[in-house]
Design brief:
The chain is of the alpha+beta class. 25% of the residues lie in helices and 30% in strands. Strands 1, 26, 27, 28, 29, 30, 31, 32, 33, 34 and 35 form an eleven-stranded mixed β-sheet that branches. Strands 8-7-6-3-2-15-13-11 form an eight-stranded parallel β-sheet. It comes from Paenibacillus mangrovi.
Length: 711
């Protein structure tokens, strides 16, 4: 445990400070619905039990999808034990214009509508800012191209910062928004591109454009660079981006870590406020000149400056063999504990939030990754509780509900005919549901490049699904996808239609529905070759194999929010807290044995207590494990425990054997008639079990069981 900075929390003592033993489409659509909910307090210290929310779509097409199931969806999420949803905000779709800056007001209205719905359903919201992908046809410089230009074009950088500010301003009215985060993924493109440029001149040019040469100039001399590149340079402007299989690649990783924090995270945090960053917890291989391989860790980015949370992701493949193998859950759990421990140790005082808890991943491109044995997934989820409670302050599922990777933009016509070409077509309403009506001889089409289907090279078929009905009498339509076409008869009742089309027959996915005879109404179109699965709910919303395991995990983790009693804190303070590591600075997480609950503290710890009415003093109870200090450091002769109150030393105890600790401090011993006791506990020794090869990497000194007020 690294000692935290001073986090002053004044506790209005109603009960003991540490009751570890005692509590051992559009605006028109949106304006028809509720106004912003009544402002509620935001308990940002509640253990986060989160689910990414994509409705009936996926992150790329969610914001143009139907919202009429929001209430029932969120009630289901809440009933499954979650207290938070995570919303993904694509940069392009929300800020389609860069020069000049232009915002999509409809998207922001929809964002506020969803956040408000979450609040009405007693759900917190976490915002992922800056997702790279969307299909909006109005976006200037779409997808990854935008993020690359952040490095090379100040116009894009200023627009991006303005986008951060815009989201902050739009959401600041909502007290259920816990925090937001950026992710390293959105900025990683320059690393990938730098290793795929073949021309030396182009590599040198790119190294200058993205600021890599300037970074090296400010941090290294040419001799150091020449040694790592294994060639001589006369000036920094001769240095190219490194080869991925050379030792110099380490410098590119260093550059990325530096720029991620200094150019992106810190300026964005200055604008947004309560901002986190999903850090890269995968290590990257470095191919040393002697033929060996070492691993570059991005752990210097974990201790985010002035942040409450460090955000991370998790997959069983991390640190594994990844040779298409399966492993028993207990082996994966050991690795899981190590990864979380390592992240926590390098994150300073920040809490850890796992935004993507990927215990299962069927992404085709990662089919070689190590997986948990399918019959042990439930066991892994259940036992993950131990590591989650030790190291994290929350987690979220990416796949709460399976989703089809739909390639169709505005597939439910919530935004009318945007993104579609048409003839003799009009928008219609079916109760609250949007659709289109195609007249006789009419047609509607959308140009869809095959590249929109990220998974087509792994799939044998692409699936076409839609809902349709004839208007007054049965009709016949022609539907086509690229070079494939089919005729279909329609009846006057709504019906779902499904077609499987061989991917090998398609050079493009251009989609068209034409009337051969009669009018018809069309809605809810899906064109996809892959379904991302999480085994909680299937794509149709039916419960899946791991739902019960997730609900049981949530139930156990929700008890974490009850382990620490609800304290009345000084609301004028910038930071409210109910977590023991915040209330008791220098403490570790709560543990429990046959004698009750307790916390370890390090050599320096601090807590502040406000005098309770009729209180005569304060009693601290704990235990001094002298034998453990001797076990890890045989030079320890005694354990000295000093008690400081309001910066004045008032007590000192010396221990030469394992002993209970009991300290009583009377209020009349505190100077200047203060009702506040700033208590500091200092010891002369601490030990770290990992120094002798054990898994626990905390710095430990003594145990505290309770701090109570005397009457």
């Amino acid at each position: 445990m690294k000692l935290s900075k001073s986090k002053v929390v004044y506790v209005l003592i109603l009960i003991c400070l540490i009751s570890l033993v005692l509590l051992s489409g559009n605006r028109d659509f949106l304006q028809k619905h509720e106004a912003v909910s009544e402002v509620k307090g935001n308990n940002s210290n509640e253990y986060i039990l989160g689910a990414h929310y994509f409705g009936n779509e996926w992150p790329i097409t969610f914001w143009t999808s139907e919202f009429y199931n929001l209430d029932s969806d969120m009630q289901k999420i809440r009933n499954d034990g979650f207290n938070t949803i995570v919303l993904v905000i694509p940069w392009g779709e929300f800020q389609p214009g860069i020069d000049p800056i232009k915002y999509n007001d409809d998207m922001f209205e929809r964002l506020k509508y969803v956040v408000n719905k979450a609040d009405l359903n007693d759900l917190k919201v976490i915002i992922r800012i800056g997702y790279a992908w969307d299909f909006d046809p109005d976006v200037q410089y779409p997808n990854n191209e935008r993020f690359e230009k952040l490095y090379v074009d100040d116009l894009f950088y200023k627009a991006w910062l303005d986008y951060i500010t815009k989201i902050k301003n739009e959401l600041e009215q909502f007290h259920n928004v816990t925090f937001a985060f950026l992710t390293w993924e959105d900025f990683w493109g320059i690393v990938e591109k730098s290793t795929h440029i073949n021309s030396l001149d182009e590599r040198i040019k790119y190294a200058k454009e993205i600021g890599y040469q300037n970074y090296l100039k400010n941090n290294y001399d040419l001799n150091e660079i020449s040694k790592l590149y294994n060639q001589s340079f006369e000036s920094f402007d001769q240095i190219p981006t490194p080869d991925a299989k050379k030792e110099s690649m380490r410098l590119m990783y260093e550059f990325f870590d530096y720029i991620l924090i200094e150019k992106f995270y810190i300026p964005a945090k200055e604008r947004f406020g309560n901002l986190s960053l999903e850090v890269r917890v995968d290590s990257d291989p470095v191919y040393n000149s002697d033929g060996s391989i070492s691993w570059y860790s991005h752990n210097k980015t974990y201790n985010l400056p002035d942040s409450s949370y460090t955000t991370m992701y998790y997959s069983p493949s991390m640190g594994a063999e990844n040779n298409s193998n399966e492993e028993p859950s207990d082996k994966v759990l050991n690795r899981f504990d190590y990864i979380l421990n390592n992240t926590k140790q390098n994150a300073g005082d920040n809490k850890i939030f796992i935004d993507q808890f990927l215990y299962f991943d069927n992404t085709p491109a990662f089919s070689h990754n190590t997986k948990i044995k399918s019959n042990e997934l439930s066991n892994f989820i259940g036992k993950s509780y131990n590591s989650l409670t030790k190291y994290t302050s929350g987690y979220a599922l990416w796949n709460y509900k399976d989703y089809a990777a739909n390639t169709v933009y505005n597939a439910a016509f919530e935004f009318g005919l945007k993104g579609w070409d048409s003839n003799n077509v009009k928008s219609v309403k079916n109760e609250n549901d949007s659709a289109v009506e195609v007249s006789g001889n009419g047609w509607i089409s959308q140009t869809i490049p095959k590249s929109r289907d990220f998974y087509h090279s792994y799939s044998e078929y692409v699936n076409l699904k839609f809902s349709a009905r004839a208007v007054n009498r049965n009709s016949t339509i022609k539907l086509s996808v690229g070079e494939w076409s089919e005729q279909q008869s329609l009846v006057t009742e709504w019906k779902d239609y499904n077609f499987k089309i061989p991917v090998s027959q398609l050079n493009k996915y251009d989609l068209k529905f034409s009337s051969i005879n009669g009018e018809f109404i069309l809605d809810d179109i899906y064109l996809y070759s892959f379904i991302q699965k999480g085994q909680v709910y299937d794509v149709n919303g039916n419960s899946d194999a791991l739902l019960d395991s997730i609900k049981e995990l949530n139930q156990k983790l929700s008890l974490q929010n009850d382990l620490i009693p609800v304290y009345e804190v000084d609301l004028n303070k910038k930071r409210e807290s109910q977590y023991i590591t915040d209330i008791f600075d220098g403490s570790s997480y709560i543990e429990e044995d046959d004698n009750g609950r307790y916390v370890w503290i390090g050599k320096n710890s601090e807590v502040q207590i406000k005098k309770k009415a009729n209180s005569t003093g304060i009693e601290i109870k704990g235990y001094v494990p002298f034998s453990l200090h001797r076990k890890y450091n045989d030079k320890v002769e005694n354990i000295v425990v000093e008690l400081y109150v309001n910066n004045k030393k008032v007590k000192e105890y010396t221990f030469t054997k394992d002993s209970p600790l009991s300290i009583k401090l009377m209020w009349d011993e505190i100077d200047d008639n203060s009702n506040i006791a700033d208590i500091q506990i200092r010891t002369n020794s601490e030990f770290n079990p990992s120094m002798q090869g054990e898994s626990d990497r905390r710095n430990l000194s003594i145990i505290i069981n309770s701090i109570t007020q005397l009457k």
